Amino acid sequence: MERKQVDFLAPAALAGAAVGLISAIPFFNCLCCLWIIAGASFSVYLLVHRSDFPIKSSDALLVGLLTGIVASLVNAALEIPLRPIYVNIFGRFFESMSRFMEELPPEWETLTQMRYEGFNLSFFLLDLLLSSILFSFFGAIGGLIGYSLFGKKKISGENNVQTPPQDYGNHQPGL
After folding, report:
1. C-beta atoms surrounding 113 within 10 Å
2. What is the model's pLDDT at position 13?
3. Residue 85 within any structural domain of the chain
């Protein structure tokens, strides 16, 4: 049976855009790894239902990886306009954290001020690289989980007749 070309990009783009959007929203981004795994599993579900033949685990792994990459790109693009909200949230967080800790390291305050004063291309690219690696990793895990849930699609024309177990006789091991 000749295998047709599978379209990985459409399910990965749809699920990755949704996951990237959810991961960029403040307070929902606390569960970003869970969203990535769920989105990659959903992209495998879409892939299984769009294809006419069973997919392999490598297909699910690839679509999960692509979902993570798309999600990281969408997340990075949406974090730019949401930066003032993040600055406000992290400012409150560090203010409340300073009440419980006697002294924060001075490098920590410098780093956070540099990170949230405005758009910094080097931090943006570093954030994009790290989130791409992390989202791809969790997307691959989600793809494999999705494969275990949705990947076993029946081949048309296959009989579902169960064969009875064979009786090998009443053999007892010798002493």
Report:
1. 10
2. 94
3. no
